[in-house]
Structure formats: C-alpha cells, structure tokens
Amino acid sequence: MKRFVSTVVVAISMITSCAQDFAPIGAEWYYNELFAFSNNIDYIKFTSEKDTLMFGETCRKIIKRHKIECNDRPEIEYLFTRNDTVFFLDTIFNEFQVLYDFNAIATSSWTIKIKDEAQNIDTLTITVDAVSTTQINGQDLKTLHVTYVKADENLPDTYTSTIIEKIGDTQYMFNWYPWSNIACDINYTSGLRCYQDSMLGWYSTGIADSCDYVYTWTGIDAIESSERIKLFPNPAQNFVEIIASDYSSYTIDLLDLSGRLLKSDKSFAPNTKLDLSTIPEGVYLIRLQNNGQIIGYKKLIKD
After folding, report:
1. Most CB atoms within 10 A, among 65, 76, 187, 202?
2. pLDDT tens figures, 131-147
3. Is the bond into 235 cis (omega within 30 degrees of 0)?
4. Mind giving me the DSSP string for 201-247?
5. What is the value of pTM for the model shown?
C-alpha cells in the first residue's frame, strides 16, 4: 500500500510539473530589433532571471537587454502562471492582467487595459480565431491564432498574430502599442528570432542569421539605400510604384510607424505597383528585402 501511495504521489507530481510553466528560470527570448529611419539591425533579449514575490504572487523576474521604447513597458517584467493562464504585473494599474490564456478555445477572448499618452484608458481585446499545434523539438505546443482589437476613439487598431505555448506571442511578448496620436519613430520589432530554455531546448524562427546578429548602418549605406529605391507618386493615393532598378526580385513590406507589418508582396521585376486602396491615410515605411537582406527603407505618405 505504501508503495502504491508513493507511486500516486510521484504521478501527481509529474502531472503538475508538465503543466504550463511559462518563462522557466534561464529562458531566453531574442526579438529582431529594427529602427524607423535607419537600417540598423539589433536584437531585444528577454531573460527569465529568478523567482521573486510581487503583490503576494511568486513571479518570474524578466530582465531586458533592450526594450521597445514606444511599447510603454518597464525595463523589468514580472509574470506568473496559474491554470495555464499567464499573468503580467501592470505597474500602470498596479495589478496583474492576463497576458496569455492557454485554456482558450476558438472564439474565446480576454482583455488587457492600456493607457494612451493622455492617460485615457483603452481596452485591448485578444480573440482566438483558431487553435492548432506547433511541434518544436519533438514537443507538441498549443498554438493560438489571434486577432488583437484596440478600442480607441482616436486610433482604433486591428491586427493578427500567433501565440505559442511556452514561447508566447511570436511578434513580441507584449504585442501592443498603447499611444493614440503619437507616431513611434524609434525602435520596433519584426518578430521572434530565437527562444531557448532547459526543457524545450533551442528554437529559431530563421528570420535572422543568428540569435544575436547585429548590423550597423553607415553613411554610405544611407546614400545607397536612398538611391536604390524610388517611389512614385509620393504622396500616393490608391497605389505607389516602387522602382528598385538594381534588383530583379525582392520583397516589399509596408510598415506603420510603430513597425507593425501591414502588407507584404513579392516582386519579380525592378518596377512594381503596390495597392494602397485599403490603407488609411498616414505616414508609412516601405522596406525592401532581397534574399533575407534589407535593401533599404523609404518613407511613404498616403493621402
């Protein structure tokens, strides 16, 4: 009987240990870091450093090498997991909010309160469109395909992303931009490069040559970047013609000033037209890439 009881205790312990444990100590996230008006490439690194007590909860302390300046998140984050739901400490509201709900099913949702630059409270609703499985290093991880909707009377916003169990949002751990009337012209991320921990192992998305790849833009690059790309007309209305005469094929990315990818097309000719009919008026960035290398950026005004 004692042996049976011991076996049951061990089994329960194993089940508990296999439950969702987001941000185990030593876990690392690497995000691609880009800049609004230069071709510099760097990386944002998050590290789960240790356990610490915050507001009565045992949290994982997450430290950052860099942060997205316009994201309005602190240098240090505190997270804890309960019943497969990940909570984060929001120091603006002095409370924990739901970051990810891995119990979620299709059509379910959760909300996050955010404040804009005028300290008005807006709501970010994350709705699960579909649920799938992603296999990484032999482990099947629940994957949420979600839509973010920011309820903001000045600048409502809707965008999609993917949230993977153990890893989080593949764009950025805190994938939102709280401000309403201020364009972000500092740094932004184009997505997760790498993730690693002692249980899942190492995972790379392949968007960069290495987890810690860095590229420094020079004055020569600036001149070459400007000369390689031409936009006509600019300002534009329903379309813009992109001319990159040195390249027979390239990828065109349309970004807003917070760095969010709005549209991506592939061109197989030096000249191509990009449809802007569904894009709201405003200021954007055109980014061209060839074989994974950034050719350059151009500012685009949509009238």
Report:
1. 187
2. 999 999 999 999 999 99
3. yes
4. EEEE-SSSSSTT--B---HHHHHHHHHH-EEESSSBSSEEEEE-TT-
5. 0.73
